[in-house]
Each structure stands twice: as C-alpha cells, then as structure tokens.
Amino acid sequence: MVNKTKDFWVFVETNEDGTAKNVGIELLSPGRELADAQGGKLVAVVIGSGVDAAVEAAGTHGADQVIVVDSEEYKQYTTDAYTIALTALVEKYGPLSMMLGATNNGRDLGPRVACRLETGLTADCTALAIDEATGKVAWTRPAFGGNLMATILCPEHYPQIGTVRPGVFKKGEETENKAEIIREEIHVEAEKIRTQILEILKDMDEEKVDLENADIIVSGGRGVGGPEGFAPVRELAKVLGATVGASRAAVDSGWISHAHQVGQTGKTVAPKLYIACGISGAIQHQAGMSGSDCIVAINKDPEAPIFDIADYGIVGNLFEVLPILTEEIQKARA
Amino acid sequence: MNMLVCVKQVPDTTEIKIDPVKNTLIREGVPSILNPFDGYALEAAARIKDKNPDSTITVISMGPEQAKAVLKEALAIAADKAYLVSSREFGGSDTLCTSYILSEAIKEIEKKDGKFDIIFCGKQAIDGDTAQVGPEIAEHLDYPQVTYGLEASVEDRLVKVKKETEDGAVIVGIQTPCVLTFTKPSFDPRYPTIKRKMAANRANIPVLAFTDLPDINPEKIGLKHSPTHVKKTFVPQKKTGGIKIQEETAEDSVKKLFAMLSDAHVL
Questions:
Q1: Is there a smaller number of Cβ atoms within 10 Å at the N or the C end of chain B?
Q2: DSSP character for B86?
Q3: Do the domains at A8-192 and A216-333 have one common CATH topology?
C-alpha cells in the first residue's frame, strides 16, 4: 500500500484493566526522534476496552495524536479482532512506519498485520535509526542467537513495521498532555473471532513469573546443582522483592519450570538489576539479559563469560556468597 | 486428523563461534539440526496422533537439497510423509515471501493428500528468530492461529491449545483448519526408534519446485520481491567486563560488593 502521511505509529498494547503495557510507552521515546526525523507526527494507537488510562499515558509521554479503538470485543486480546482493527486503521491513515512491542501478543499480531498489508516486518529490534542514504527506518536486530546483528530496511513497502523488545528503551519523563485524541468505531462480528480463551491458568507453578516487568531478577544456572540449589536464590530474591529467573541449563535439567527461563529460547529481560548465580553466561543467555542496567555475577569459575558482561562479579561459591549477601541486605533494610 | 508440520534446518547456534581476528561468524563445521521449536511442534502433532491413531502427519521444509536430512529425522520421530520445497527461484525470500511459497506448496499438496486440519510450526527458528513465518502462513491461508503453544488436544473437531502467556498460561479453543505455533513444553520430545530410523533413511522425499506450483505468483517470491532487505550485518561489540571481586573470604567479597552496589545506588 501507499503511505498517505509521514507519521510514525506506536502500537500501545493494553492490559485487561485498560492500562498501557510498559513497552508501548517505552517505544514513544525513540518514536519521538524517528517521527521528527521522518517529518511526521508521533501517533500512539490504543486498542482495548476501557482504555482511558493507556490513552492518557500515551499523551503524557509525547504522542502528538492518539488513535483509540475502545470497545468490548477488544477486552481480551484476540489475533482476529486486533488484526482487523489495526489493519483498518493503517489503511485509513497510511502511516510511513509503525512499531509494536515484541511481547507475546505483539509477536502474534505484527506478522499477521504485516502479511495482510503485504509489507515487511523486522522482529525483535534492539536499535533504531533513520538510514542516511535512503531516509528509511534502519531496524537493527540480533540473529544467530545474538552472535550476529543485522540492520534491515524495508525500502519500497508501507508501512515499514518493526517489533521492539521490551526494556530496550527507557520510558520518557511525563510531560504536558497535548495529544489530539481521535476515536474510531471499528466493530468485529463475533463469528470473525475464531479463537476463544476457555480457561486461564495463572499460577502454573504457584509463583508469579513476570520476568519482563521485573525491576530485579535473581537467576540460577547450572551452578546451583539441583532443584534444592534454588533455595538460596529464592531467599535472596525474596529480600530484594525480585523475580526468580533461570538459565537454559537449569530448566533443561528439570530443576525449575520453563516460565523462569531467560535467554534466546526463554524471556528477554531488562531489569534495573540482574544477579546471575552459577550461570556461565553463554551467548544465548546473554541475548536475553544483556540489556539489564546493572549485572552482578556470582560464579566459581573466574573465566566464565558472564564476567565479560557483568558490571560487578564475585568469584566464589554461590552457596557461601548468597546467604551472606541475603543477610547483608536484610540488615541494611531492617 | 490430517496434520502438517513445517520444519526448518538450522545451524546449531550454540556451536557458532566468533573469529576473534576477523570478527566474523565461523560457520564451517557448525552442525545443521532440526530447529528445536519445530521438534516441539512435531511432538505436539505426535501426541494428537497417539490419541487418534488414524491421523496422518506430513512434514514440509523449504530449503536446499541437504534439508532432506531434517525431513528424514522428522520421519524417524513421528511423521508419515515428507515434502521438500526447493527451487532456485525461491532463494533470498524474506519471511513474507517464504510464508507465501509455503502456503502455495501446502495448497498443492492438499490437492493430492486432502485438506490439512491443523498446520503446526515452531514458534520461531533459532537462526533468524523472527517468529513470523507461522502467523504469515495462517494469514495467506486465512486460517485462525494460536502462537506460543505448549500442548494441543482435539475434542470433537475443536482444538484446545495450552498457550504460554507472560504470566502463566491459558487454554485457547480454536476451530479447524488452523495454524498453531509451539514453544518449549515442560516435557521432552520423543526419540526415534531404530526401526523408524532405518525406514526414514530409505524414504523417497518428493521435491516441489517452482514449476510444480502452477498457481504461484512469480511476482511474490524471491529476493527481488521481498519487502525487507538486509543492509548490513555485524558482530556485536562485547561489553567490557566490570569489576571482579575475589577476596580471601566470601564475607569480604560480599561486603565489598555490597558497598559498591550501595555507592552506585543500585541497592
């Protein structure tokens, strides 16, 4: 299709309670620069049910315009309803470029929309720029398990679409809300929604594992030695109010469920503090956590690659180090 | 159930090393494997067949002649039939073109073998990591989809999929025909038996080339018609290591770390 504007769109995914997911707001920061470089408006697109909070958050984080589709059929995410709504909006307004968060839903929706619009999509980007030679968006992403980075252009199809990993960009400061709000009525007949959530299994292993939104993550790897080896990891996580993560080695050994896995075949995380305990730091693990603000590694092996990316590292036995660290933190917070 | 599993041959990314002098990927000697996520998809199909023994599992792969190796592996594990989609004209296709070619190949196979009820894919391939081909096949065929599947079962034509979400899992009901993509479940996929392995080695795998797909639009395939282009690739810059602490005792190391984290306002 042909673009009608030079606008840059950010799809702001919503939670069921109508608030915005962090990644959507994060993307407004690079979106501002890219929209200015393209010479167009920064537009946030919010689809959901009862989403005033998300619309407000987009406005206070720099969107020039917020396009809202607010209706009951979007309360829960469905591929069919969201694809219909987002495609209809793109066809009506013709943005030059569009970003979505690379969440489970974003990675479900992005390819579906790109294919329906017969345009290109670059998944899981970690850096964005405008290509000087062509003026197109230069989407940079890891490939081959993080061993290689590739910069992708979509030179002749519109909109140029990319998904961007959560935590890569930081939320901007709140500013005065000057956004123009446009409400669109798009309704999807029930029979066009071909999937249905039959049951919600929230606590798969009796603890909430929201790694993507965690401020602090304490992760265990091969070095914890067994399921009971996660006990000191959990203790430290508890005093820090942190979420427990794991490397692939620990998950594959059956010591902890896959929901905890950080890395290429698990979750991509970017907390303020990531504490890696007994994790050697294979490139596949690094691919999932190297965006963390501060990385602390605890490992017996001074040559472990995790020390190459750690800001602080203790060479030592985690079973000695963790209980002392837990106690120190407890003392400091008492 | 008539089931199709899409598989890809990929380099084992855990074996890829960086040439420290040239700063490039060393790909020689890196083994080619069945994409692990496709293995989980195949296992999900096999589990449906365990409960519905009159089912058929067909596997399809797009790639060069060597990709027959992963098709044989899939035959040895659980599949009944295999097709390779391979042609010079398909080279350089991005995800949009690849998914279009696969959807056309699927339609062509269905002319002979009947409609597929469920099309299984891995969530993503470990070389490209795009997670796009599954949903794009679904879009080309106008089928509904469930991504991030962990397990699937069939009850009276309704497919129930356990889907991983950010904070747990949900059970999603989906009508057939449909496309499902799979991530890593909590169980291990089955291994091939010796007997199946020997049969798979002898299997004749038909190839579908460009000329075997009469309905395909040549304007929608290959490098030239792919919307996305790789402008450049580079090896990521390694972050230089930070401060390594190794004191006499664990107590001293922790005290030092704690002081540094406090100074940096991390804790």
A1: N
A2: -
A3: yes
Element spanning A216, H or E: strand A216-220
Low-confidence ranges of chain B (pLDDT < 70): 23, 238-240
On whether any CB of chain A is under 8 Å from the CB of B264, the answer is yes
pLDDT tens-digit series, residues A101-114: 999 999 999 999 99
pTM of the model: 0.87
Looking at chain A from residue 59 to 118, which residues have their Cβ under 8 Å from any Cβ of chain B? 79-80, 103-104, 107-108, 110-112, 114-116, 118
CB A47 within 8 A of CB A55: no
Domain boundaries, chain A: 8-192, 216-333
B130 touches chain A (CB under 8 A): yes
Contact B235 A148 (CB under 8 A): yes
> Could you report the per-residue pLDDT of A30-71, keeping only the tens digit for each?
999 999 999 999 999 999 999 999 999 999 999 999 999 999
Domain B2-225 part of CATH 3.60.21.10: no
- Provide the CATH number for the domain formed by A8-192 in this structure: 3.40.50.620
Residues of chain A positioned with their CB less than 8 A from the CB of B250: 314, 316-317, 320-321, 324
- How much is the CA Rg of chain A, to the nearest whole Å? 21
Which secondary structure element, helix H or strand E, spans residue A70, and what is its range? Answer: strand A65-70
